[in-house]
Hints:
CATH topology of the largest domain: Multidrug-efflux Transporter 1 Regulator Bmrr, Chain A
Region (Disordered): 1-28
Shape: globular
Helix content: 25-40%
Radius of gyration: 22 Å
Number of domains: 2
InterPro entries: Reg_factor_effector_dom_sf, SOUL_heme-bd
Structural class: alpha+beta
Strand content: 25-35%
Oligomer: single chain
Family: Belongs to the HEBP family.
GO molecular function, one term: heme binding
Order of helices and strands: HHEEEEHEEEEEHEE
Organism: Promerops cafer
Amino acid sequence: LAEESPDSAYHSHGSSLEEEAAERMDDEEQERLLSYWQSVGRGHQVDVPRDMAEPIQQLTRNNNPQERQSIPFTLIQRKEKLGDLLYEKRQYGKAKWACIKMKEKQYEQSICLGFMKLMRYICEQNSSGLYLGITVPIVTVVHTNEAHSAMTQAVTVAYYLPEVLQDEPPHPLDSDIVIEEWPATIVYSRSFRGITNEDSIMREINLLAAILESPELCLRDTFIIAGYTNPAAANRLNEIWFLQRP
């Protein structure tokens, strides 16, 4: 057998040391991200389990603005007043979404827990075994009473499947996640920043209802909160969507 030269031995040993160092850094990054999400979760009274470490890391690494696919829509109208955008009227096409119904005591708990389940589905826990890619916004369907004075506890958190997966979406391994096809819809959208809770959502619903010329054209008890930043972010970018009646 040919003897291994000292030079090649050094290189093979050196590369294994480099791999070990990279793995150690990988583990440290995973721990740091997990502990960050766990501290955010505690603020929302949500427990972030250890098995979320890998999906969190995967999503964080792939969360460049260039990597995110925006949900396609056609802009119908922009309503402005003194240079400020009041709302946009948009047309969204028929599409498939991965949806999970949640009913926690607080809205923030529902979206955090629902988002974590969807993250697992996006990050390889699906029939393809592949990372599916992030799309924005992640949306939450909420319901209110007719008077717009209170929200019901039951919400649906939903992830728009990327264009390449629309025809044949991978099946979720989690039986709580259901693939639904939503019909084409006209939406009235207004953006707002900050946390989303029962109070801020009701405030935004009433604000948009007051601005719209014909709010009666929209569903009275069903609204969508569109989130463009993950629930761990402090200054989130959100939109409230009113849905035009079919």
